[in-house]
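The instructor's notes for this session suggest beginning with a concrete chain rather than abstract definitions. Hand out the sequence below and ask the class to guess, before any prediction is shown, which regions might be ordered.
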Amino acid sequence: MGAYILRRLLLIIPTLLGIMIVNFVLVQFVPGGPIEQVIAQVQGQGDVFEGFAGGGADAGGESSTEGNDQYIGARGLPPEFIEQLEREFGFDKPPVERFFNMLWNYMRLDFGESYFRKIEVIDLIIEKLPVSVSLGLWSTLIAYLVSIPLGIRKAVGDGTRFDTWTSGAIIVAYAIPGFLFAILLLVLFAGGSYWNFFPLRGLTSDNWEELSLIGKIADYFWHITLPVLASTISAFATLTLLTKNSFLDEIKKHYVITARAKGLSERGVLYGHVFRNAMLIVIAGFPAVFIGVFFGGSVIIETIFSLDGLGRMGFEAAVARDYPIIFGTLFIFGLIGLIVGILSDLMYVLVDPRIDFEKREG
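After discussion, reveal the predicted structure:
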């Protein structure tokens, strides 16, 4: 197993490099770079896209023309001002040199400073991380706590009325987009057209510091209830069906028939023999499910509920063309995703030691 883990760890390097290269190249063709953002603000346009009149600019705000007129809307501004912006943002160097400088800094865990927030990218990530982790962790835990018992109950009663109507409810839940369900929750329970049971935005109240320990815990759960429900719905549906199908596959196997023939009760067969094998894929997939919830719905959910997390920060950085944040978070998230893939394999081995990935690869 050690050799397998070592190979997977070594594969992280070329995979992460490929991710960074593809995204860096794509960014070169995205119009409206950070320099154009600054020019738009200096000229009172507010946003670069309001004055964007055509023509392509790369990640450094470069286009096919030469000189300081290459920046849309830059006419009338001193050339020295544009050159100073290029030096500050590092766009006075060729793209290849900028890319390798970025990789060298990332190898030293130096992710640079935000263009517009004047704060280190790593400090921003550390500041926003608790919100996103909190949302992803609670959503995943609730999905597992509901899905596993429900999936087992559906497998045992396969074809019954309970199985039929719960399957219908699960399909409907899976079909509802997370952002639409989030808006529905806000309308129903957060002061929309009906009840005002939960706060509209944020993760804590304004008087958070004045509350007691119990009050802070209650306030936290009061604020996070709706965002967690909104981000859980799709994972809940997938996990329930996965649990049911996994149990159904195991129940039909010969060892279950043998256990029943020996006189074991249905409960003894289910939890003494079937449970371990059926739960293998469900439990081992916990890291991947968490990352899926963490990355998949965080942008929309955090934006709708005004949660100051990584998803919202990444979205705002993309709009503002704040490249240090974009590439810094991309590098860290890519690294986390690759490591989680290794952890998922380790979870399989932990749940069932009979699995040997090295023999499978051989």
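Then share the key points. DSSP finds 15 helices and no strands in the chain. Residues 31-107 form one domain.
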